Structures
1.
Amino acid sequence: MRINHSNRINFGNLSLFSSPLSMFCNSNATIPTLIIESGVTAGRTFEANKKGGKIEASERFVEQGTSALIWIYGVKLLQKMGEKLGKKILKRDDFNFDVGFDYLRNPLESLDKNAIKFKTINLLSSAAVATLFIGFGLPKINHFITKKMLKKENKKKQKEHIKVIGFEEFRKNFKDISFTSNLYKLANIFENNSTFRLLVTDIGVVGGRYHNARNKYEKKECLFRDIASIYFYLFSTSHIVKLLNKLTSNTDIDPKVLEATVDMLKERLKKSNLTDSHNFLSKTLGSGRLGDLRKIDELFKGRKIITLDEFKKEFFEFASKAEAMSGLQPELNGMRILNKTQAKDVVKGGWVSNPEFLHDVMNRVTKGAYKDKKRYISAKKVEKIRQSINEFILQLQKSAEKKNCTVDSSFVENLAKNSIRKSFAFYSIATAISIYALGFLIPKIQYMIRRKLTNNDEFVGIKDYK
């Protein structure tokens, strides 16, 4: 089945929602983080000014704003600087590859081991430098600014001597550095998953700010504020969106996956005579013979992938479709492979199980990277994409059944538009809740704790200066 791309869904006025929604769905997008951090910086500065005056407001603005800029732009800049150093050390021009891998993809298998080691060091050290600066360096800068604002003298200077290894010595000993697969995976997560990156580094930041707090009251405030913030920075948005989707029976589906699915359905529905919603469900999801599905379960017992040759040996009549399906990921160790979902899709026969359609989906979501051997797309992400398609089909069927109507192109487009509206609204609501909690609610509770501990609202950071 060839998809007519000239017939793609026209979201009309929803195009304003679909682009920002795509950014919400991208785990490494910077704009959603920038929106949250801007709101949090403004909120915490405002609340600090109300309670502790301009000195505390200054500290909160510098602390929050600088930390955000470092995480959004600084870490990437450090990584680029590290890559320039790597090119000199290894005499290699290309570090454009991913260091993550799992049972479905392994971009590392044919790459130079020293290049992999260096990129891993670069990614982890960039995050470590940023963490140390935010946790230990930035508080010192803030304290210095505060002292200057209070016109305090007798500034203490402290010098630390750091042993710097020579360039040639580093180059000579680099090959002896020992690495494990877990380090490669960790480095990949730091590069491609902002949520995990922030979660791990927050531990260092919390420790650093606690260590550098100027007295016991500030230590308690820092500990509460930073630990309470972790949930709203990293998890609250996804939890709120998931809850709202469940309450409204909406599908959490990437806009690009939705677009490809609607294109396919429109093309198929032109050539199909559907009588009711159940007929639509059997056409789209398929079923397959029970014996074939059980045989696949046996093939995958204790395994997550099988080779294409193993599958063809058991299901020769599906050889052509299986070959097309195995192209959804690069060869692994020189062999074409299938995961369990792909193997079952081959024998099911539904519209959403068509390899050409799934190739179109992956091409749009990854911008063609799904076929690139140097790129890593986790098996978990692939499975989530595939599952979201099924969930949208079920949403269509249930909605048509509820309205007692036949699923046609118009019905599909209208429900897709409605889904885009809801998803954008849910992510916006979840983001607003996070900003309110981080920028206003947590500071208010922080200042309640301060009043209980000190019996006043004065900024605890300057107590020792007085």
2.
Amino acid sequence: MKIFCKNGFRSFEQNSSIENMIFKTSTFVLIYFLFFCFVLFMLHPVKSYGEKIITLNQAYLYAAKLNGTIKSQRESYYQSTLLKWTAISMLLPNISLTYKDQRFHQNSPSSSSSSQSSSGGSNIFSFFYPTYGYTFALTQPLLNIPAIPAYYAAENSIKSSKMSLNNVSQNKLFETASDYYDVLSDANLVKADRKTMEEALSHMQLAKAKLKAGLAIITDVLQAKSEYYQAKQQYIAAKNKLKSAEANLRAIIGVSFNFKVVKPKNPVLLNNSLKQYIKLAYKYNPGLKSLKFLKKESKDEVYYYETQYIPKINFEATYNGISDNHFIPQGNEHYWTAAGVLTFPLFQGGTRIISIEKARSQNNADMYELVQAKRDLRADVVSGFYNIQNLKYQIIALRHEESYAHKNYKLVEEEYKAGVATSVDVITALAELASARHNLLAEKLDYYSSILNFKTLTGSFKRKLIRLSIDRFKY
């Protein structure tokens, strides 16, 4: 077959063979590229959106490791451990070494006027009589009574800081658990609203079918559409609320990747009486224990200032080496001295009295704060105990209400299909079902949060996930 072109005739078969060769080559290159991409994907798989799953215990670990507030409080605890070394240093020796190397000099007049004109001055600056000396000194406290209450005050300060760290970490872990249950509740709310939206869509489609069959009026369809759009809006709002809750949880545990949550074991309380819970709170509440150590610290500080007038005894020794070839004929002299020094303070102005009064006033303030904290803790335990009991019975009632609303909706839907009920009845039953679902989920979340808060009050919310041995010095 021949085709006509401007420059003459060209073979159609030749053009076809060239196009087939180009097509085969491009196909081979494309297959090789796809195979290379597949191998690369297998070697470095990419996780899809929201693939990672975080349990509640893993969220605790992330918060303990990455939360900035806990890390900051940990550094404050480390700073408090340095106070005991301040007290220990009051009994440690002071050792020093002083070395001195000096030269004496004199100004002598010049010998000739030519030297004056050449040097530009009338005197010659010269060094002579080299002298050196060194002193090795030791001061060892033998009796320093204020070091004892200072050390005890530092120990109580460390215990108070440790309890503060426990308190801060416990609060942050409680917030982690609370936010975790918020995410879980919002995820269940999204599922419930999606189910409500699907039920509203099913009713709208049924109303349209009945309208086509002449068994319904246009008002029924419009009402069904309105209910569907309202359910869809609630579903979108629930999804946005879930994203906000996930952002709050990500912020407190210190991660930035997307994740999913799983349902943990629901928190429960032991079958103890209210009196037993109050005793547990007095014994194990971290905030109350921190105030107890703070009161002891201020009391030991009072003892520290009261012992400032007790005499101090130090042992002092020095070893001296002096070399002076000009003033000492022998050229060198080495000697040592030793002495016991007694220091008895007689009057220190108003410093000691003011310090003692300030320490006593702080001790009284800590005592008043401890007494008031006990009263507040008792009131919180009583209120939390009865609140949990009420929530428990409210959840039981709301479960029955949700079950009744679901059965009522199914019954009204069947009656509407049979032509006995109206579309308004179906929409009303669906709205009651959606409200019952929301109320049950909100009450469950309040119940779990109340239990976690009650455990925090009684000191049973213990998560030993933070290592507290931060002291970087060893005896």
3.
Amino acid sequence: MKTSLIVLMLALVSCQPQPESSQAYYDLEETGVRSGGIQMIPIHNGTYKVWTKRVGNNPSMKVLLLHGGPAGTHEYFESFDSFFPEAGIEYYYYDQLGSYYSDQPSDSSLWTIERFVEEVEEVRQALELDSTNFYLLGNSWGGILAMEYALKYQRNLKGLIICNMMASCPDYGAYADNVLAKQMDPAVLAEIRTLEANKDFSNPRYMELLMPNYYEQHLCRFPASEWPDPVNRAFKHMNSSIYTLMQGPSEFGIAGRLAQWDIKDRLPEIKVPTLTVGATHDTMDPRHMEWMATQVKNGRYLHCPNGSHMSMWDDQEHFFPGIIQFIRKVHAGVSP
């Protein structure tokens, strides 16, 4: 009788779902010389190459990360290493064309939203992501790129995550002027405005004013001396010529080629499950981010009460659990 009970217990245990082994998760299934998941992907008819790095192995949950800038780097996403592997989510770091780890051509005609969208599509194809497993996450400029990609190629998506980016650059500029600027010391703001009016952006005083009064308040809410190493590396490796051409010389408002970008009226065209992520102290209006979630067909809003533009660093307590929960719900077929 004791033997029968043991057999029964073993049978019951064998019927329980077994956790995915860490060995299987980290098997990158590489052939030839192993590169740690790094792949240089040809784009633009093979003229250039962009850098990608895969972490993990989950056929049903794959996230492609679109960094900000334009022409920032993947580096400030490295906090994902502390959360996504534990959740069993496969993800891809990716430096867009012009960014530090990818080719950096000098042809200014390349720096358009339309060409970047086609680049993301080429990367998707090379990585063999599809509508059964492909989640696209964009932060800041990466959010613009993610929205534009969804408007053209959402048939390839399983889910969309828009972090810290409004659907209108004019609205973003207005929020900076009418809300964020008014939170500054008037004397500090007047000096910043004078430097901007004189186009004296290279003056060291300009950054001396912006760093404590704007960047540390709305970009990454730590003293600059305590900014995480990946954040510092991302800023160090920024391609400033592309950034200035498209975004303008400062995070404090917007200029350049993106100044008039606005797709608010097209949000209802986005039908895939969509998560918008806003934060109390963000450079972007969190109420606008919440409103965006009501405009897409299948949206949900995640608020980071302690966060700023880089909530993946200064509000990890809310940012990562919310994103992971969204991905798992979409994966399970549950409305987000």
4.
Amino acid sequence: MADVEAQWMANPNRYDDETYSRCGQSGLILPKITLGLWQNFGGVDVYETQRAMIRRAFDRGVFHFDLANNYGPPPGSAEENFGKVLGQDLKKHRDELIISTKAGYRMWPGPFGEWGSRKYLISSLDQSLSRMGLDYVDIFYSHRVDPDTPLAETMGALDQIVRSGKALYVGISSYSPEMTRKAHAILKDLGTPCVIHQPSYSMMNRWVEDGLLDTLSELGMGCIAFSPLAQGLLTNKYLNGVPEDSRAALEGSFQTGMLTEENIDRVRALNEIAKRRGQTLAQMAIAWVLRRPEITSALIGARHVQQLDNSLDALDNLEFSKDELAEIDKYAADGGLNLWQKSSDSQAPA
């Protein structure tokens, strides 16, 4: 087995389909689908499954891998595992990769173990680089707004991080339109552009359409949408109950209040639309997010290679008719399943 593993070579045709987009008005380019390591890549998960998913994603043209300091569990272990895969398989491809990480949520005890102080952000990134065995990341995010630290300090830390060479680009996650404008203005004055925003966005969670996407377009920022599958709700997983191995069955990892009978009926109706399109519900949900020109990339997770392949196949059909969009809106537009906060200004999830 070891000899076989040592012979792995990346697919030489991985860029043939050119399934990537420019991030706003920057020089940063991202694949239309990014693999996120929020779930299923921690120390409690099977490492070889993680390794297989990362390699498969790269073979299919996914060159962006998204992490955060607290991803696991335990916190930090996703970065450690990714660093191991990077060292074993992808080290020679480092200059092809976009690797991102974030800081904002609790990582260690005491007042400097979370939020947005210069002390926390720079210390956290140093730890992240050590865990992944990297000299720099491509994108570093402020993961949430700190209500008690001046925004100028948080953005000043991002500027310092770029100037120190520890990150090539910086971004923000789950900031409201107003806070996005303020953050962008501060960084612009400092000479370090804020190139990307990472908010939650799905058919059932449309808060970004109430001003944020327009703001990003106006500012020339890119957007990568996390949870396009609404943490698995927009799949066929829950159409007939809650599977024992699903996220909803794991305490603390899914908002089970979403699984009302009314919401499941909506999902079943959306699933019928997907069938008519020749797609799975997950594929349609990803394609729906990517229909917006402001969206640079859809950030997905995966439990195994087959699930990853299913999601990546969403790129086979990204077009929607007006009738399809109207029918989707009939079941999803009123935000009936939107149980997330609108931004980290109001304590959004990680």
